[in-house]
Amino acid sequence: MRKILTMCLGIFLLGMIAPSFAVAQNSKLEVKGVVVDASGAPVIGASVFEVGATNGTITDANGEFALKVKDGNSMVSISFIGYKEVQLMANSELLARVVLEEDLESIDEVVVIGYGAVKKDDMTGSVIAVKAENINRGAVTSPQEMLRGKVPGVNITSGDGTPGGGSEIRIRGGASLSANNNPLIVIDGVPVAEGAGVGMGNGLSMVNPNDIASFTVLKSASATAIYGSRASNGVIIITTKQGAGDINVSYNGSVSLRHNYNSLDLMNAAELKEYVTSAVGDKADALYGEADTDWQDKIFRLGLTTDHNISVFGGALDNKLPFRATVGYNYDQGTLKTSDNRRATVGINLSPKFFENHLSVQLNAKGIYNKANYADTGAIGAAVNLDPTQTPFDIYGENNGFWNWSTDLAPINPFSLLYDQWNRNESYRAMGNLQVDYKVHGLEDLSFNLNLGLDVTSTKGDKGNQPNSIMANRDGDGNYKTRGRFENYKNLHRNQLLEFYANYAKEIGIHNLNVMAGYSWSENYSKTSSWSYGRMADGTNNLIAATTPATKNVLVSFYGRINYSIDSRYLFTATMRADGSSRFVGNNRWGYFPSAAFAWNIANENFMKDQKVVSALKLRLDWGITGQQEFGEDYAAIQYSEISQDPTNQYPLGGGDYYFPVKPHAFNPALKWEETTTYNVGLDFGFFGGRINGSVDV
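Predicted structure:
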């Protein structure tokens, strides 16, 4: 599949980019100008083209443009989303400074939804869009930090503080009893694979925060049902920035320090001695040490985080090839000693257009390298429970110089847990897609969209304890006692995607119709290999267990949506998606996920036009069913047997040879889709020209 994608990409780019060099070579007159909005701010990326011809350009970062046209009588069109189009003669002095007027009746706020976009006023479901200018700023090193507190009903809970660790994201709480409750994350049209391996956090870690143009959060079933089986926990759609205009270089960096806000108030050495003496007298005096150790203070430190990003963006080849390239580096030092995380990211976006903007191409590629050292968080609990009269170190002791009680029931010195163990991980992840959108010549209301995507993650790591450490000495297996154990592991996760849909949009008088239908195919493959070893007394390593399971699941889908509105007052939406999963068998294989919604734009009614207080008022009603299949196992419904890979599970069958047995796998053929039905009632409102806005959803 990867070879096919690579060949298609190469052939497509060669075929599409080469003809573009021949555009507008016969133009004789060059017109120049600047495009600004009503406030005088430059409009970046506005389309400027000669009417009736094939030559065109876009404004640069200063709003400026230069365009060659046939002669002074040529008509020049200037347009941008959310503004009224302006057409002027090439010899008009007004072209020197074009002021675009905001079009309040057009798509001044276009919201990206599943497989397309829609006007904010025409939305029927519960959808929240957060644009780049409204995203959290400051020392932000991950996308979830940008979104925190910006969307009602979206709860982002920080993890255990592990550097590079992902946050838990819940949209309207958990929807599943036993399956995954994470929302579906879609980056530039590619659903991000779940369970990509150790070290990757959540799917949001794939995106450099500086590249994000907007978040769209789909909450109600009417909005999410188009994603069917993956949307019962909501959907987060991320759109990244694109290049335009003159080539620019941007740098963004931050350095920050962090410390633990508080610690538990525990007894010091004197207080502990006084308390124990009052309870048992002087019986424990021989057990006291001579120190006064604040174990919590010993294991924590001031954490350092540094983040640096460089972006190069603009329009190459005379603005025929808009691009954006980004490189980022992040170092996150945990407040718990021995924990840190290093992350490097690269990304590139190409967005050329051809044939008078009828053919749009989006090429996105992102890569991430992550290297982490994980500290044993059990050291925090040990610091709370350990005797404060003892010192952390015992250079004459047998536990690698760290003081510890000899009994197995006592807590372990947190220094032993932090410095006598290791847990390291390296991860590589690459994600990209090629999206082609063609608006049919002569029938511009009809467009076709093809999306090919690939998401690959490779991780490797090892963990264990040092020889002669307290952990090795307490190892439960006598064969490896005083020597300890260690483990190596590798993981490969690959997700492939092919999607194709057609969209028809037609406006006739007060009637607006938008119909979309499509097909999707995706394959998830995962292979995890691990080897567990015990150290023998003679210094050799003995293999305890080895596993190399590989699994795969395939999802095939058909979906469609109808949006119909009357005079932008009465809005109707209906969606249907059918998902077929290889995780189920027989009649349970296919799941069907419909939704329906209605919205009444009360603010657009005639009786509301003469008042100036209420600028927006919309009532929304919707219902829908979404699905869930992320139960953590690909073959839970299929009967099969497997060969055991556990070296301790072998049988002697004569001659002194040992053999691995074949064992049946537990299965449930009645396993089927988990379904979630959602009802939603919402009210959107705005006052005083949009200065005050809000929504209420039940």
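Summary: Residues 136 and 145 are 7 Å apart (CA to CA).
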